[in-house]
Write a structure and sequence with these properties.
With 411 residues, the protein is mainly alpha-helical. The protein has 17 helices and two strands. Strand 1 and strand 2 form a beta hairpin.
């Protein structure tokens, strides 16, 4: 029974719902569950240090590299930037698989302790020995910073944020796989709406004359509007979820730790009467992050489309005519790109605007809702059904169980 309980806890964590688990068990396996996140931080720190070392050069040196290496230099910077995004996620996932595969307790504990030691002491020292970080940055300060980051990571894992963020990362990968669906169903209609804006000279002039700080302020303002819209929309959806009920004998939990269980007749009550505030918040965050990941994936797709489209159709003199002045070489988050800054800024603005349009479409358009949002609701309904069985099995031990390191942290 204890093994089944741990499998059920892990199932809820993988679905980004740690608040469903009883609070006395949320800290179970905290060291083991924190280690993949620590590997993520190690790889992210190393790769970011290398990227900053490559880009933190005087402007004349950067221009000389662009002249001498050209496309090869840009591709190298883009490859390293891509590695900053992808490699830490892959490394954390591989560490999680390794810890599950190791059956000897001492070996598993040695791996976790070694990872902590590398993060706290070896990584700061190695960055200075290799020249990624100058010795003028005190080593003791880096060690204290990493210790503080470790404490924050453990706290986030303890309260369940780590499970939600891990689930969000897996959801992002799933959205990348579904990028073809986004492109074929949502992109064509949107292009009819925003394509004419792309050829509007006033838009180019307005966006080109914004300072980088003001441009990101505008982007942030639009993002906040989108977040408020999503929150209000999900509030209405949560009310519908509260009144949802599962028919006895439904087979929606096949292939889960609750596969052999069926909710007894009359046992299911409206979720509103049983969900705690933290559980409602957890479900709301899951839906919010899932929708936000879809919107970000769609925005990135639109941004890439307009960059490629602009390079193909707009000559440099046309860009100058649209922007009202000659545009400087473009950079995005410090990464130089072989296109004008005006094209990058306009594409970024249209991508954020397109994300708002997509968010509104998934809420109001029946076709978009059926394709992109209703599957998320069905997924949450399955979790609610599993929660009922979870409570039915272990409600009687909620008050008395004690979680130990030997039983949970090193299974």
């Amino acid at each position: 029974m204890d093994l089944d309980r741990r499998a059920a806890d892990a199932w809820f964590r993988r679905r980004g719902l740690p608040m469903v688990i009883h609070r006395r068990r949320r800290g179970a396996g905290m060291l083991r569950r924190s280690t993949p996140g620590l590997v993520f931080l190690c790889l992210l720190d190393l790769l970011l240090a290398g990227l900053l070392k490559l880009l933190d050069v005087p402007q004349d040196v950067l221009e000389a590299r662009m002249r001498d290496s050209g496309l090869a230099y840009v591709l190298g910077v883009l490859a390293l930037t891509f590695a900053v995004v992808v490699v830490p996620v892959v490394g954390g996932r591989l560490m999680a698989k390794l810890l599950r595969a190791l059956h000897r307790t001492r070996v598993r504990l040695a791996v976790m302790v070694a990872t902590i030691g590398f993060w706290v002491s070896m990584l700061p020292l190695g960055e200075r020995l290799t020249g990624l970080v100058p010795w003028s940055d005190p080593l003791w300060r880096a060690v204290l910073t990493n210790l503080a980051a470790l404490a924050v990571l453990m706290l986030l894992v303890r309260i369940g944020v780590g499970s939600i963020l891990t689930w969000a990362a897996r959801s992002a990968v799933a959205q990348v796989r579904a990028i073809g669906t986004l492109a074929s169903r949502a992109l064509p209609l949107l292009l009819l709406v925003v394509m004419f804006s792309f050829f509007t000279a006033e838009l180019w002039q307005a966006v080109e004359r914004l300072s980088p700080g003001r441009l990101w302020l505008v982007v942030g303002f639009l993002v906040v509007i989108g977040a408020v819209f999503l929150a209000s929309m999900l509030s209405d959806e949560m009310k519908e979820l509260m009144s949802w009920t599962l028919e006895p004998g439904a087979a929606v939990l096949r292939g889960t730790p609750f596969d052999d269980d069926t909710p007894p007749p009359g046992r299911r009550v409206p979720a509103k009467a049983t969900l705690t505030k933290t559980e409602r918040l957890n479900i709301g965050l899951v839906l919010f992050f899932a929708q936000a990941v879809q919107i970000v994936a769609f925005g990135v797709l639109v941004f890439a489309f307009f960059i490629v489209f602009g390079v193909l159709i707009l000559r440099p003199e046309v860009v100058t005519e649209f922007a009202g002045r000659e545009s400087a070489p473009g950079t995005l988050l410090g990464v130089p790109l072989p296109v004008s800054s005006a094209l990058i800024n306009v594409s970024l603005f249209l991508a954020v605007f397109s994300g708002l349009y997509f968010a509104a479409s998934t809420a109001t358009d029946a076709r978009y809702r059926r394709s992109f949002f209703e599957p998320l609701l069905e997924d949450v309904k399955i979790s609610l059904a599993a929660r009922d069985i979870y409570l039915a099995h272990w409600a009687d031990v909620r008050r008395t169980e004690v979680v130990t390191l030997e039983a949970e942290d090193i299974p």
